[in-house]
TrEMBL record:
It comes from Daejeonella rubra. This is PepSY-associated TM region. Keywords: Membrane, Transmembrane, Transmembrane helix. It comes from the Bacteria. The chain crosses the membrane at residues 12-36, 225-247.
Length: 259
């Protein structure tokens, strides 16, 4: 094997190692953090109280009664995606998810989920509007474990692709607590329920996951060009290392024979 070829391989290996070294560190550190983390804690499940039970003898009306009130109030109801029974301010409510064909199917951070929401009292059938701030705070306090004081409350009407509540249903209140993990509880104004709980460990996880997938927009695109390119360059780096090892071993053997 010629000296010039050996030199070129060594040079390629050196520059590829320099280019990929930092990314390899992120892959390794991320893998260690992921494997040593409790995912229930990362997702905020350990900081969430279970949903309150609803008394079965409350005298519920049929959901069709509430649907009738929607139609008589001028609401267009094409088809139902889902109906849930939730508790809001100590009262049972039907949570109707109505398919909305007027919403664009293009993904963005302000139109998900692609349906209209309507809350109706499960006893009287009375329709109600979105949550106000005081109701969102009450729901956040009831759903969050611990007695931490509230640090800040924000109404979110839009989020960026890097926001910790990205792709969550909007509008929503972000209720932040004085908590060791800097916890923030996100409550949807239309759904009337907690959607996500974010803590500091999740934020670290999210950053490392972004570096791991090399998807600096949505975090979950494993087929992005940058990741594919670095993977191929990584193989080149490994194979060039094998070649250098083989060449160096051959030279070492020749020196031994000459002695």
């Amino acid at each position: 094997m010629s000296k010039s070829f050996h030199y070129r391989i060594r040079k390629i290996h050196r520059y590829l190692g320099l280019l990929l070294g930092i990314q390899f560190i992120f892959w390794t550190v991320g893998g260690i953090y992921f494997s040593w983390s409790n995912m229930d804690e990362i997702h905020g499940d350990l900081n969430r109280n279970p949903s309150p039970l609803i008394y079965a003898g409350s005298g519920f009306i049929s959901p069709s009664v509430a649907l009738g009130k929607m139609k008589s109030s001028g609401h267009y109801v094409d088809s139902i995606h889902d109906i849930k029974l939730i508790q809001l301010s100590g009262k049972p409510y039907y949570q109707f998810l109505i398919n909305d064909h007027s919403v664009s199917t293009h993904a963005n951070h302000t139109s998900k989920p692609k349906y209209k929401v309507q809350l109706a009292n499960a006893i009287t059938g009375e329709l109600r509007g979105p949550l106000v701030e005081s109701e969102a705070i009450s729901i956040a306090k009831d759903g969050f474990k611990g007695s931490s004081a509230i640090r800040e409350v924000k109404l979110l009407t839009e989020t960026s692709s890097h926001h910790e509540y990205r792709s969550g249903p909007l509008p929503a209140y972000a209720v932040s607590f004085e908590h060791p993990g800097n916890a923030t509880v996100f409550v949807s104004t239309e759904l009337g329920t907690i959607q996500k709980i974010r803590i500091e460990k999740w934020r670290i996880f999210d950053f490392l996951w972004m570096m791991h997938t090399m998807d600096y927009q949505g975090r979950d695109n494993f087929g992005n060009i940058l990741l594919r390119g670095f993977s191929i360059f990584g193989l080149f780096t490994i194979f060039s290392g094998f070649i250098l090892f083989y060449v160096s071993s051959g030279k070492r053997k020749n020196r031994i024979r000459q002695k």
